[in-house]
Design a protein that fits this description.
Blueprint (H helix, E strand, L loop, with lengths): L15 H47 L5 H28 L1
């Protein structure tokens, strides 16, 4: 059996057209890979930014407390509703 020997003096013959095609394919593949990688990084960054904003909004909702004036107004409205219910009951009793 013949022994395959490779050295610095070994000669490889390839048509120029095929070499240019291979180099073009490598260049396009590299460009596409880095394009996909950039897009993926962009999407991940956007996701992190949106998630942070969602967390901030959730914290705001959980810790929300209406102003004192609004709380007082709600209490007054509830008291008025209670008084109206009492008056309606009294009117019903008088109309019987």
């Amino acid at each position: 059996m013949a022994k395959n020997a490779f050295s610095d003096d070994s000669v490889v013959s390839i048509p120029l057209r095929n070499l240019i095609s291979i180099l073009g394919a490598v260049a396009i593949s590299t460009w596409a890979y880095y394009g996909v990688l950039e897009r993926l990084s962009s999407v991940e960054r956007d996701l992190a930014v949106h998630w942070e904003e969602i967390e901030e909004n959730d914290d705001w909702i959980d810790n929300f407390e209406p102003p004192k004036q609004v709380q007082e107004t709600v209490s007054q409205v509830r008291e008025l509703e209670r008084q109206i219910a009492v008056l309606q009951y009294q009117v019903e009793q008088l109309s019987k």
